[in-house]
Amino acid sequence: MIYSFLQNGDSAVTVQFQNEISKEVNSQVTALCDRLEAKHIDGVIELVPTFASLTVFYDCSVISSKKLKKKIEALIRDGESHAKGTARVWNIPVCYDDEFALDMETVCSHTKLTREEVIALHTSKPYLIYMLGFLPGFAYLGGMDERLFTPRLKTPRLEIFEGAVGIGGEQTGIYPIASPGGWQLIGKTPVKVFDKSKKSPILYRAGDYIKFFSIDKAEYLEIEKQVASGTYTPTVSEVEL
After folding, report:
1. 45 with 57: CB under 8 angstroms?
2. Where are the alpha helices (DSSP H) in 97-188?
3. Residues sharing a CB contact under 8 Å with residue 86, sequence separation 6 or more, in sequence order
4. Cα 168 to Cα 18: distance, rounded to the nearest angstrom
5. By the 8 A CB rule, do 33 and 49 touch?
6. Average pLDDT, whole number, for the chain?
7. Are the CB atoms for 189 and 203 separated by under 8 Å?
8. CA 183 to CA 152: how far, in whole Å?
């Protein structure tokens, strides 16, 4: 396994793996993140995984950089002999009706696919969550079928509604809160993937997968009611790695 350490001042160190976007490299990042969380090392404050690196924030009055790096190296060696076998898959409902799919016509025109074909491809397989960023709970998903690739809007919208599901270039994702954005919108989920009132406000984590499934407007409204009352929880399955 290829990696290096980058020191960020006196309170953070980044473990940089191979500089590429791939499932293999990202799995090394998330595996190390999981092991560090489970180890509960004194002085470690926060872990921030990205596509190909993991930044570890720590209290230098509790643990030194040198000692922390030694502990991280030991966990990396341990990880090489204990590969993770499965990952969680969050099954997320999406309504692709016209009132939510504001850019479906644009996507269909660009891809030369029908609306039904776009939905079928978009819901056909799980997407790996490479990392979270941009907004709280915004998941950078990998693995979208290349037939769905569509450029972002030339002029971003000033506000996109919470739960919007869109396509931006080679990626797809969910807007966890209302915000500006330039992705092509093809639907909306009633699920709150970010809820600041909860102890764990973000539904999923890097290394999990998301699989979308299509629902109609009546189903959307029913799930929306359940979400509001706190009685809806997305189903979770597993995928072999």
Report:
1. yes
2. 104-111, 115-122
3. 238, 239, 240, 241
4. 25
5. yes
6. 95
7. no
8. 5
Task: Examine the pLDDT at 81 and tell me if it is beyond 60.
Answer: no
- Which residue type sits at 185? L
Q: What is the mean pLDDT of residues 174-191?
A: 97
Cβ within 8 Å of residue 230, ≥6 positions away: none
Check: CB of residue 159 under 8 Å from CB of residue 171. Answer: no
| CA gap 134, 130 in Å, rounded | 13
> Distance between CA 120 and CA 192 in Å, rounded?
23
The pLDDT of residue 195: 95
**Phi, psi dihedrals of residue 99, rounded to the nearest 5°:** -65, -20
Q: Model confidence over 4-18: pLDDT tens digits?
A: 999 999 999 999 999
Entry field: residues in the chain: 241
Give the span between the Cα atoms of 47 and 116, in whole angstroms: 40
Half-sphere exposure of 74 (CA within 13 A, CB side): 9
Does the pLDDT of residue 100 top 90, yes or no? yes
Beta-carbon neighbour count of residue 107 at 10 Å?
21
**Which pLDDT score, from 0 to 100, does residue 239 have?**
85
Instruction: Determine phi and psi for 212, rounding to 5 degrees.
Output: -85, 145
Q: Span 19-38, mean pLDDT?
A: 93
Q: Which among 34, 76, 196, 208 has a CA at the least distance from the CA of 131?
A: 208
| Average pLDDT rounded to a whole number, residues 47-59 | 96
- Rounded Cα gap, residues 82 and 31, in angstroms: 10
Q: Which residue has the tokens 């776009």?
A: 118
